[in-house]
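Board notes (copied after class):
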Amino acid sequence: MESGKLHLDTLPFLLEEMLDQVFSTMEELCRRKNLKLIHPSIHQGMHAVVGDPQRLRQILINLIGNAIKFTEHGQIEVTLTELKRTPEHTTLEFSIIDTGIGMNEAQQTRLFKAFSQGDSSVTRTYGGTGLGLVISKQLIEQMDGTIRVDSQEQVGSCFSFTVRLGISDLETVRKYQDHPRKEVNSRQLQNLQGAHLLLVEDNEVNRIVAIELLTQAQLSVDTAENGEVALLKLKQNAYDCVLMDVQMPKMDGYETTRNLRKLPECADLPVIAMTANVMSVDRQKCQQAGMNDFIGKPILPEILYSVLIKWIKPRHPQHMHHAQTFESIDIPFMYGIDSAVGLEHTAGDKRIYRKILQKFAENHADSMNEITQALADQNSPVVNQQVHTLKGLAGSLGALSLQNNLQRLEESLAQNNSNTQNTQTIARLIATTTQELHRVINSIQSTLPLIEPVAELKPRLSLSDIKQELQVLLTKLQAFDSDADQQLDLILGGVEDQSLMNELLLIRKQIANYQFVDAAQSLMPLLDFPIR
């Protein structure tokens, strides 16, 4: 990663599909303010392109979101013009035109100054747009483009930006979408089977995603919820690699890494940072702390696997159970969630995606109330940590509107002042974000109940069969096998003893929460259960 630059991917995508994702996110915000959102018309000849669709979507959501924020009446119009086309590239211009409060010349000058120098005057004036605009400008320039603003007070503003994208075709795009992990060297990944990793991550949903991706690659995973537990496990076990979350309470990833480097057995142990902060300064902090490499959040499977291939020494493949992917599993429509984006972070595995959606709804229904309370208690570290974590989770799930609200809230909190305007902005953002979170969670809970009924009743199992299947379940739990829930369903379908069934249902909830160690400990006494 070059100094001062963000990571950009290069892949084929359909412009229409990317724009549909943007407008599905922003239309709800416009409806709430009774604003009209006008879509651009797209010429059929330019729809298949090569670039970074997620970053382009991020730019558009930021600019359209700001337009909505500063417009009380009227409309937001998005236009798209092809400025130049060659056999290899197209230069596109997007314009976001609003009928909002507008800006005078001095404000526009300060706005562009904030772009280039990070001047905080614009963020103080406009309530948290600065960081998003700075990142947007940087991304646009990395796409060989420019951005400008034309505005008049009480009339409105027009933000226009250009980007240069490669030319592709529909067949290439569809082939890429059908094989999203084609760049991962499957032979090299196979050589890592059985490698022993330590995952240091305080957030349970993030642990679920990482554990699933690692076990899919047939890697052995231990977990630590904070730096102190990680250091204890590093003293007790030998690992091939450590995946280290950077932002954790008590002992963050930087301090944990500095401490582990003091252990003789960990001097050369590969440590891979995981963080949502992707600026080059963050990478430098990771390197200074003794980390070897850097993975951005939300974690993309192909990037995770490529980094592991780079740092873990190849070994002879060991025979580990490989979890089956059930492509027939349905992902129904849910409010505020772009499942296509969410599935990118689970390597397309719908079963895993359903589980992390369920876990998010279970764990975070009260998160905004906790943030509000921490804000009232003036506990800034807790507020910042929880907002940042929730934003990353929303992005992983594809809850793009929620992620955008949390991004703006994070920006406003970062201003570190208590003037009346900023306080009111934060209050409005908390109210909007709370409402959006509740809608997303209610949709998940009504569509994907946490404990789903067993599909069909299996024949009753004999005593010896039950003991044998329980032993298989224990083995799966000890191996962090994501197929453990299906094994337990098989047992539940053949058990009639109500007392045993109650014990197994408690274990089922532990497995649903990915508490594999606790589930294994709960299961052990049942191996000698007096079945009647």
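Comment from the instructor: The chain has 22 helices and twelve strands. Confidence is low (pLDDT under 50) at residues 114-131, 317-327, 451-458.
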